[in-house]
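Before relying on records like the one below, remember that each one covers exactly one chain. Contacts with other chains, cofactors or solvent are not represented anywhere in the record.
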Amino acid sequence: MKRFFTRGAKILSLAALCLGAFSAQAKQFRIPKNAAEDTDKIMSQKYWDIWNPELQKQIDADIEANRKADAVVNVGQVKDGTQVVVEQISHDFIFGAHIFNFDQLGAPALDAKYKALYGTLFNSATVSFYWYTFEMQQGRPRFNSEYWDGQKFWAETKSPKTEPHWRRPAPENVIKFCKQMGIRVHGHPLIWDIRLFHIPTWLLDSCLTDPQEREVFMRDIITKLPEFGVRPKPEQYTENYKKLTGKDLSKMFPVLAQNLKKAFEKRIIELAEYYGDTVDSWDVVNEAAQAYKQGGFKDGDKLMKSRFGVIMPADFVFDAFQTAQKHFPKKVKLNINDYLMGKDYRNMIEEMISRGCKIDIVGSQMHIFNPKAILAAADGRPPAGISPSNVYNIMKTIDVGKPIHLSEITITSADNTDRGRMIQAIIARNMYRLWFSIKPMMGITWWNVVDGCGMPGEPSLSGLFTRGMNPKPAFYALDELINREWRTNLSAAPDADGNVKFRGFKGKYRLSWFDKDGKEQFKIVNVK
């Protein structure tokens, strides 16, 4: 543990000291790997009957087949008897987390520990771009940090969760930090059809520019427009509105439809022009399968009623991808993301691809928020998201020939007891192994890293760390996998032609050796 955390010259000294302290605690946590270890104390026999040796053997075989590759590297003539040291320095596979609590934990030491995880445990960070908090005032996007984004503000804030920008830091400093640390940056999201977290409160008002449409809208559709507040509030719709279809709305409000479409396009173009390829990938559309399932995206309609009654451009998924692929550089990956993992999601993706949308990566979510569900899993009654057979079925359902990003995962602790935390760790370890073994998978992103730092409705115990940034067993379980079990380091003798042959996890490697003159040499290679 200590060796791992001190690797990398870019780690801030304070952060390195903080993380170095974790190693002293690591030995007290022992993560059971199979039914032979402490099952009566932590997991039931029924749990291990599901995660049985045959399944574990299959997972190991799939990891070997899908996550490793053979390499041949020529190092030339070497000093007699020398060994070439082969050290993996990075993974191709994405092990990510959102970075929504950047500088928000209330103390420099806590913020330093939090930041130090990026570049050590995590090689990718999901950065917040929720429209509501990114552009609270129309025409004034929050690219750069202001006084209320700094550590001092959060240290003096008595109730962080009541602040509108909690978990929503201005992205510029976050992205600069990620780039400094060599972290892949994933933007989340461009378009999302939900008022509570994404749609700005000013949007409807600004798009009702036609006087006649505004009069009808305020009389027949809505009793009050949303106002800016601590949290965005839903529109107050009339009973008449509930009876109207997307076709009805399209006929009644053609100017509103046009303005909404333009506003969505402006949002995407503005971010594309500002960031270019600085942000490596984006969730272009988030959680639209429900709208598709409800019969949205019908030919000829200009407006639709999305979930929770939100009025959206009728073809917003197609429009968003068309705008994004036109304005972002080709190297930027465009993702679609959802929590619904059924045929509707697959059908929507296939339809968008058939219509010419550049969907590079398919996002899949898995949130187990309920501690009772975690206890049920430990008792051998796993909820759908963490049932191995169900995971295999989900991956098969959404496999459209694109890489799959497990973009948001939550595995909460059962409770704050030692056993409750160990249950979280054991489940996390087994799930990561399963996900890592599946061929189309390209990455896994843990959602809330720190306890008590989720949104309303999300559990307070779902982090890898306590609110005071003390590591929980789940942290050690993932660190053991990512930085030990799944990292290839070895020594090998070159053959007569100077070739070093090895098989290792896909990623970047540093090879070092002494040549025939006794001079130290090194080479950086990518193993694909």
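The two ends are 27 Å apart (CA to CA).
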